[in-house]
Amino acid sequence: MPVAYLAAEGLIAPLLEALADRVVAVQGRLVLASAATDEAAWWAANTWLEPQWRRIASIGDGAKWLRSMQRNWACHAIDWFRRVELIVEKLPPLKAKPRPFPFELPDAPMGNWTLWQKDLMLASARCSSPFANGEIEFEDDKTGPPSRAFKKLQEALTVLRARPQPGQRCLDLGACPGGWTWVLQRLGAEVVAVDKAPLDPAVLALPGVTQRVESAFGLDPKEVGPVDWLFSDVICYPRRLLDLIVRWRDSSMCRRFVCTIKFQGADEHAIAREFAALPGAKVMHLHHNKHELTFALLDEA
Ligand SMILES: C[S@@+](CC[C@H](N)C(=O)[O-])C[C@H]1O[C@@H](n2cnc3c(N)ncnc32)[C@H](O)[C@@H]1O
């Protein structure tokens, strides 16, 4: 079954590598493939699951075809921008405002379309992301969180449809200056922030927040005791992070993990595959990820 991927910004190269000889055609960040692979989806902002072609007779004809399928349509324009704009004007408007956090994912499907040629539309009513082109923005807070990284965690918890409940114990590894700790504390969680650098004093002063000034890799799970969630945004080689996750999982001290895999070298496919091979693991690229992927393991059994 053909499928189309919108590569995440700057990640077209690993996406094409993951697809190898399944690539049919490429325009900008949009890649047509003869078949889907789990691995390709890790590098994509959005996967168009059921792409269909339509030769359109006019702007009205294109808009009518889209509207006949469903309400919500986002466009990823690659050319013919004025023509695209005229079609967009004939479609129901999309809400583009930043979302509050927590935010429950919408149930209504979000389709994506483009003009592949001037008169040839490519559209998919079903896509992997419920957001237009896989992009979600959260309401900003210029005073609370001490870093911008907080949006990455807000997005991860939104997409996973899971978040720490009040009173749950969270370990936040590589916590400084404290954006993720701030998000978790506001959810009502008890947060143990671990970093070799000191936490922002305003975050450390929040109720339920404590800090351990040490390396995340030296922690003994049995000494720390049971935690409901382990978060990591530590800058480190992916292999070190994978070993840490496996150690914590095998200790039975934690069953839920949300971690950033930060890539430094050329081994990204091999190591990402190892993360994905952990039973129950999810590997994904979030809108707020850069040259990194988000790993999640939520064992709710
Ligand atoms: C990208 S920053 C984390 C940002 C943080 N999540 C936030 O929201 O503000 C990465 C952090 O990893 C920390 N780090 C690097 N090596 C570490 C280690 N071995 N143990 C704990 N933290 C480490 C750095 O000190 C740095 O604060």
Describe the structure concisely for a colleague.
The protein is of the alpha/beta class and 301 residues long. The protein has helices at residues 12-19, 38-42, 59-69, 81-89, 150-160, 179-186, 201-204, 221-224, 238-250, 268-276, and strands spanning 3-7, 23-27, 30-33, 44-48, 51-55, 73-75, 111-117, 120-124, 169-173, 190-195, 209-213, 229-232, 256-262, 281-284, 292-298. It has two domains: 3-134; 150-298, Rossmann fold, CATH 3.40.50.
Structural class: alpha/beta
Helical run tally:
10
The count of DSSP E runs of length 2 or more, i.e. the number of strands, is 15
**Could you name the CATH homologous superfamily of the largest domain?**
Vaccinia Virus protein VP39
Radius of gyration: 21 Å
- For the biggest β-sheet, the strand order reads 11-10-9-12-13-15-14
What are the SSEs and their pairings?
Blueprint: E1 3-7, H1 12-19, E2 23-27, E3 30-33, H2 38-42, E4 44-48, E5 51-55, H3 59-69, E6 73-75, H4 81-89, E7 111-117, E8 120-124, H5 150-160, E9 169-173, H6 179-186, E10 190-195, H7 201-204, E11 209-213, H8 221-224, E12 229-232, H9 238-250, E13 256-262, H10 268-276, E14 281-284, E15 292-298
Parallel strand pairs: 6-7, 9-10, 9-12, 10-11, 12-13
Antiparallel strand pairs: 1-3, 1-4, 2-3, 5-8, 7-8, 13-15, 14-15
Helix pairs in contact: 3-4, 5-6
Bound molecules: S-adenosylmethionine (SAM).
Residues 147, 149-150, 173-180, 194-197, 215-217, 233-236 line the site of S-adenosylmethionine.
